Amino acid sequence: MDIARISADFIAVSIRQQQQQQQQQQQQQQQQQQQQQQQQQQQQQQQQQQQQQQQQQQQQKTEIVHLFEELLTSLPPPTSVQTKFTLTIMSRAKKRKELLERLGERMPEGERTDFNMDRF
User: Fold this and answer.
1) Which helix (H) or strand (E) holds 10?
2) What confidence score (pLDDT) does residue 26 get?
3) What is the per-residue pLDDT for 55?
4) Where are the domains positioned within the chain?
5) Is the pLDDT of residue 41 over 90?
6) Of the candidates 117, 81, 79, 114, which has an alpha carbon nearest to the alpha carbon of residue 97?
7) 3-state SS string for 30-98
């Protein structure tokens, strides 16, 4: 009877160990599945963020293009701007030259030679 009892106890213990191992394996599998799900969710979130960033960049590019188009259309033709600029410079140079000539006429003879027209 002792042998039967010992063998029954041994069988019971081995069955319990198998059940515990199976439970541990199931728990590990569940944890792995949860980790995989979390990783998939993180990847999806990253993809969504990347898509949002790309959309924002595209919107910014189109806004910049529109701003440049507005700026270019609002400016007068380049020839008129260049002409006005050139005329302004020429008129200023002419006025300077006239002022320098007048100033040179008023100076005494000795100082006129020291007067440098290029300075102005």
Assistant:
1) helix 2-74
2) 95
3) 92
4) 2-103
5) yes
6) 117
7) HHHHHHHHHHHHHHHHHHHHHHHHHHHHHHHHHHHHHHHHHHHHHCCCHHHHHHHHHHHHHHHHHHHHH
Alpha-carbon span 8 to 4, nearest angstrom: 6
Choose among 114, 90, 93: nearest CA to 104: 114
- pTM here is 0.40
Span 65-110, pLDDT tens digits:
888 888 777 766 656 666 777 778 888 888 888 887 777 666 655 5
3-state secondary structure of 3: helix
CB-side neighbour CA atoms (13 Å) of 15: 6
- Residue 108 falls in which region: left (phi positive, over 0), alpha (psi -120 to 50) or beta: beta
